[in-house]
Amino acid sequence: MTSSEPRWLSPVEQRAWRALAAVLLRLPPALDAQLQRDARLSHFEYLVLAGLSEAPARTLRMSDLAALCNGSLSRLSHVVKRLEKRDWVRRSPCPEDGRYINATLTEDGFAKLSASAPGHVHIVRSLVVDALSEDQVEQLIDIGTRITDRIDGMAS
Amino acid sequence: MTSSEPRWLSPVEQRAWRALAAVLLRLPPALDAQLQRDARLSHFEYLVLAGLSEAPARTLRMSDLAALCNGSLSRLSHVVKRLEKRDWVRRSPCPEDGRYINATLTEDGFAKLSASAPGHVHIVRSLVVDALSEDQVEQLIDIGTRITDRIDGMAS
DNA sequence: GCCGGATAGTTGAAGCTTCAAGTGATCTAG
DNA sequence: CTAGATCACTTGAAGCTTCAACTATCCGGC
Q1: In A, which residues are within 8 Å of B145 by CB distance?
Q2: Is the pLDDT of residue A102 over 60?
């Protein structure tokens, strides 16, 4: 028998998966709603600005930035185009290797991020961090890492 | 001082939040990719079929189904329209209260779900459930519930 | 040197979600 | 009994993401 009955989830496993699925479905809209309302920014746009702000010279190659933000290069390209239009990011080809493009956070972009950060941190605290015990915060690091490691290992 | 310096995240809290954010950004595409490739279904479409399949008479009101699937009524309405076009779901007004609409899983829809379920369960196992220890699976129930409870309490 | 392949990024179309506005049914106050 | 409010749902447009195709640069062998 090549493909017999699959191993269905046990009741506990089902509850865990449903709990995670609910978070996957409902947390992103909640985060986006706050950022959209208070800063007219999507969560992914915020991540791009935040990622650049912590890089040396506030500059990162597009591909490195995409990996940092857990997004595809195509998605990033579209988003950076929008951010460039608002003068929060600038793009310039890398002098050493013409294939690379460097994205740089502008002064305006940094100001925008600084203004938006408190509100964002506040909702992350109230919906996630402050909802969990200290142990759970530690557990979340391990749980999240294990899941993303599995996703990384998918190209096998 | 009305709004002083916000309480930034501690290093451990940051790592936990980043780990969760990575899951939010990368797990849904991974699930969608498998379902799209093997069943030409989005994860949300799968959830709709699965939700109906477990309901009495494989029928649920649109608004109850939306809540069950953690989606907006508008989103569900669009998705059910697509599923109806493929003859996997049927809609009919509720006789008792003309405001409600009942969505029913068809025989074809049930067959489609049955055919898609093993592949979906397999990826949920390999990316999530089997990646975690027993304790972590239990913890995930509590962590996820706490987060969604906070989101529920947002209308305050 | 130069051709083929690999790498980095962009683009446009198609598809999905959200938002705001709209429809129609039912409740409720007077 | 009826006018207005509320509720359940739908719709169309706008915006975002994905996918596949494309451009442009660089490396490696000959």
Answers
A1: 19
A2: yes
